[in-house]
Amino acid sequence: MNQFRGIILEGYSNAGKTSVLKSLKQLQAVDDYAERSIVVLSEHYSQIIHRANGELRTLNQKEHIQLLKDRVTMLKKLSDWEKELGQQQRSKGIFFILEKFHLNHRVAFSDSELYEVKQIELDLFEMGARCALLTISPETVEKRIKSRNPEEWAEKSAEEIKTACDLLIKQQHKLRRQARQSIIPTIEVNTDNKDWDAYAKKIYFFN
């Protein structure tokens, strides 16, 4: 029996990762056959941009690879500990959710050698990871980005809004392209309707 089962949530800003993550946790909690141990790491533990001492800092490729490796190693150590205690069958293994992980890296460093992130993907694949890429339709993008901070967007020009929309659409295309090149099975979920529970169910049972 695989000691792991996991979901990686990917998607550009405003795609609904936080809302889907919340629904996934609720769904797993009421699943009588689910693992008793669950590890959830939000994007703050794996993304490339970090806030340190009040200032935003962008990790370089080497730093981000090490960050991803550390997170995967942590999961492996938890499984090793479980095996050492002889609790594996009782606990049904470990269920994990990671937010903004391998595809985030692939897009940020697409012009570089991606050998190391491919090795990380192989580890995740062997740990039962599946990826969900959350996307928004082009005609919905402007409404979605304005919904988060309407007061802030009300002060922006039409050109600034268009630039933000174009960037989101462009990044989605990059994420799709990188997902096709990854060994990790990926399902794309359009979140236009904001039906978070339905999306979570689709992702949770994606095999």
Q: What does the model show?
A:
- The chain is of the alpha/beta class and 207 residues long.
- The protein has a single domain, classed as P-loop containing nucleotide triphosphate hydrolases (Rossmann fold, 3-Layer(aba) Sandwich), CATH 3.40.50.
- 52% of the residues lie in helices and 18% in strands.
- It contains 9 helices and 7 strands, in the order βαβββααβααβαααβα.
- The strands form 2 sheets. Strands 2-5-1-6-7 form a 5-stranded parallel beta sheet, sandwiched between helices. A two-stranded antiparallel sheet has the order 3-4.
- β3 and β4 (55-58) form a beta hairpin.
- α1 crosses α9 and α2 (61-85) runs parallel beside α5.
- The chain is globular.
- The chain starts with a strand and ends with a helix.
